[in-house]
Each structure stands twice: as structure tokens, then as C-alpha cells.
Amino acid sequence: MKKHVETSLSHIAKFAPFAEQAGASHFPIYNTGTFDLKKQDGDKIYDYTRSDNPTREMLENLFTEVESGAGCVCTHTGIASVALLFETTLKANSHILVEADCYGGTFRLLKVFKEKYNVTVHFANFLEFDTMEEILKNNPIDLVLCESPTNPGLKIIDLKKVANLAHNYNALFAVDNSLATFISQRPIELGADFSLFSTTKYISGHGAVVAGAIVAATKELSDEVHYYANAGGRSQNPMDVYLITLGIPTLKVRMKEHEKNSIIIAKFLEEQEYITKVTHPALESHPQHKLAKEQMDYIPGLFCADFTSLELAEKFIENTKIYGEKCSFGSPDSRVEIPAKISHASFSKEELEAIGIAEGTVRFSIGLENVEDLIEDIKQAVK
Ligand SMILES: Cc1ncc(COP(=O)(O)O)c(C=O)c1O
């Protein structure tokens, strides 16, 4: 019987590659570089932690299960899982179709692949299927990539439709699932070939570690991902794996609380005269609100609010006492940042405008604090 995601998350040690000792709730951290080949006689032989490690394998088995995939590699950062995706699926002169609203680090990495390997990057708005189809029809696209919700624009992409479109043109389809996470949405079940994510965010949940993972839909793709992970040394160290396992069992309750708090604050901001627009997929004012509710079980606590000016946005950030000015999201502490200055500094002004990000746009990542304290802090900061 396939279990619900939260049931699997609450029993991580069961995903260990060999029996846990005395039913321990946590599998040991195999902090070792090498394994003695002479001392092993099981089906699975470990030789070197870069290629395989039992502690990492436990997390990879869990992610494979909850994302409904065929195999997974845990990587040392979230962006390393994006790099590993490109190393696995692209070659020199490849073409890739990417949603224009993507994480700034992904955008920067695409520039690297363009400059070094002559990869042609086609950016498009994935709400416009005709434009996408035109690009797929006229170019040999190897890979289609998007986030949903997108970061920072918080657009919701119809993943089932994009998967069908990509496959009609023999392209692979990958989804960066960092925002929604597998507790809310499982892209492989909707037709994607890969689901990848930064575990730095909601999944580890406590801001204590930087890491990522990529799950492949088939054994063949998974074998390829493992090959390139070993070749390029992309794998995650066992100590970081352990830190992630500490946060995972509470993912569902945290996501619910992030969602609840963020909706209250987004609605409060919507009513303030110094805010011109609030973009949160959980609000009815969001253009893809209906799809967001259908595609995700919980809506992440990340949203954007446009202040009337950059000066006011900066004043708010300067004066706030609870919200840190920090990149990243999904931690217990609430954070704010101006995407144009921090997470998306690699975008030009025009590129930001094209995805709906203004100078005075502030991205909020709402944490687990008392929501009244969070609102009082906003009130005093803008005075
Ligand atoms: C959507 C998305 N993907 C990937 C990453 C990269 O993850 P990491 O910071 O863990 O390398 C981020 C980081 O913010 C992100 O927002």
C-alpha cells in the first residue's frame, strides 16, 4: 500500500538501506570517506562516499518514495541539483526552454551554460501555451524547466499541461519543486521527468543547512543522474543529511502554519494604502488562484508586496525588528528581501519588469512566529 507522504516522513529510518539497530528512530551518520570492499557481501556494496553512502541513501530512498520517482540523488546545495540536471540532460549546443520567472541562481547558471557550452536558452511565459508550442516546434528542445509557484513572481504553472506539451515534442520536463515541496505537490505524478528541490528551505525547515535533491521518474534517468553526480562530485555529505532528517517529520505541520500566517499578513497588507499590489497564490486576487488550490495541498508562505516606492520598502526593511533582511525562505524566522537587490540581482531591470517585479517589490517569507507580533512589527516599521 502506498502511504501518504506525512506517514513516510515520520518514519525516515525505515528508508535506511539496511536494518536499523534496535528500532532506533534515527539511522547512524556514516561519516566515512571509504568502505572496505573485503568486509561486505550484501547485494549492495559501498566503496566511496562520493558515489554512495548509507546515510545519504536513506534520504534518497525517502525522496524517491514521496515524489513517486524511480531514484534520487541528494546534492550539496539546491543549485547543485539544478547543475546536475543540466549536466545530465544537456550537451554542447543543446536548446532549453525555461519559464522566464525563475530563481536568480538558476538564471545565472543558464548564462554559464550559454557562454561556456553554447546552450541556447529560450525564455517564455509558461502561461502562454501557444508561444511555448511555437518554440518547441521550431527548435530541438532537450529540456523544459519551470518552478511552480515561481520565485519571485509566484505564478502557478499547469504542470500536467506543460508535461504533455514537452513530451509531444520529445523534450524532457523538469520541475523545481522548492517552494511547494512534495507535501503539497508531486510533479512526477503530473507527468514530469524530474522533480528537483532545494532542501535548504521548507524541507529541512530550520535554516541550519544548505542542500538539495533531484528525483528522476524512471530507472534509466535515475542511473544517468547518479553517473553525473559521481562524475562531478555533486553528492551531499552525510552530516548534512542527518540535519535534514531532523526537520523532515514536521514538514506538514510547518507548511500549514506558514500558509495560515502568510495569508493573514498578505490580507492585512492588501488593505494598506502604502501597498499597491500583493501577490499570494492563496488569495482570490491571484490570477491562478483556482489552479493553485487544485495543484497544491498547502500553499507556501512566500508572497510579494509592492510598496509605493523603493524608499518606503527600504525604510520598512530598515525599521523592522522581527523580519530579517535575508535571502532564502522556509525557515521558522520571517524574512524580507528586495528581489531586485538580493535574490534576483542577476536580472536586469527590464527582465525583472517582464516577470512583474518592481523596484519596490518586497518578498516576504513568513515564519512560525505569533502573527499579531508580525503585524505589529509592520505597523511600527512603516510609521
Ligand atoms: C526555486 C529555487 N531553486 C533553487 C534554489 C537554490 O537552492 P540553494 O540555495 O539551496 O542552493 C533556490 C534558492 O533560493 C530557489 O529559490
From TrEMBL:
Key word Transmembrane present: no
Keyword vocabulary terms for this entry: Aminotransferase, Pyridoxal phosphate, Transferase
Required cofactor names: pyridoxal 5'-phosphate
Pfam family, one: Cys_Met_Meta_PP
Keyword Transferase: yes
GO molecular function: transaminase activity
Transmembrane segments: none
UniProt xrefs under SUPFAM superfamilies: PLP-dependent transferases (SSF53383)
InterPro entries with a match to the protein in the record: Cys/Met-Metab_PyrdxlP-dep_enz, Cys_met_metab_PP, PyrdxlP-dep_Trfase, PyrdxlP-dep_Trfase_major, PyrdxlP-dep_Trfase_small
Family affiliation: Belongs to the trans-sulfuration enzymes family.
PANTHER family: TRANS-SULFURATION ENZYME FAMILY MEMBER (PTHR11808)
Protein name according to UniProt: PLP-dependent aspartate aminotransferase family protein
